[in-house]
Amino acid sequence: MKIWVGLCLLLGAVTSSACVLQARAEEREMIVNIEHSRFSPERYRFETGTTVRFVIHNGDPIDHEFILGDASVQRKHERGTHAKHGTVPGEISVPAGETRVTTYTFGGPGTLTIGC
Predict the structure, then answer these.
(1) Contact at 8 Å (CB) between 30 and 54?
(2) Could you count the other beta carbons within 10 Å of the beta carbon of residue 24?
(3) If 92 and its partner were Cys, which of 68, 71, 73, 102 is the partner (CB 3.0–4.6 Å)?
(4) H, E, C per residue of 51-80
(5) pLDDT of 51-70, one tens digit each?
(6) SS3 call for 18
(7) Bridge partners, residue 53, by sequence
(8) CB of 43 within 8 A of CB of 18?
(9) Cβ distance 59 to 90 under 8 Å?
(10) Exposure string (b/e) for 98-108, b if CB count within 10 Å is 16 or more?
């Protein structure tokens, strides 16, 4: 079964260009770059059960977050009070000009969003 991860930008816009990567159910590393408030690559595709170590480089002069989850997770964070992230898998604060790492294991099939 496949899991799609789409990226949602700071204002909630979703772009149509895609870099689709497929992984087997195993552990892998993904390099994610943040430039001009956009994530690159913009889309991913993983097998159920794959654990991914996301290495996020923030090339912007402002802080960002990397929040991976379904619509309810994204809504929670849009309304949330968390100033910093890092204790929940798939959620990390990335200061301007720095690199942070978070790990996430993809459970069942579906589409998730990475929001900021």
Answers:
(1) yes
(2) 10
(3) 102
(4) EEEEEEEECCCCCEEEEEECHHHHHHHHHC
(5) 999 999 999 999 999 999 99
(6) coil
(7) 29, 103
(8) yes
(9) no
(10) eebebebebee
Residue 73's nearest CA partner among 5, 27, 20 is 5
Read off φ and ψ for residue 72, nearest 5 degrees.
-70, -35
Asked if 54 and 89 count as a contact pair (C-beta separation under 8 A), the reply is: no
Instruction: State which amino acid sits at residue 17.
Output: S
112 three-class SS: strand
pLDDT tens-place string over residues 89-115: 999 999 999 999 999 999 989 999 998
Q: Are 74 and 81 in contact (CB under 8 A)?
A: no
Neighbours of 40 (CB within 10 A): 15
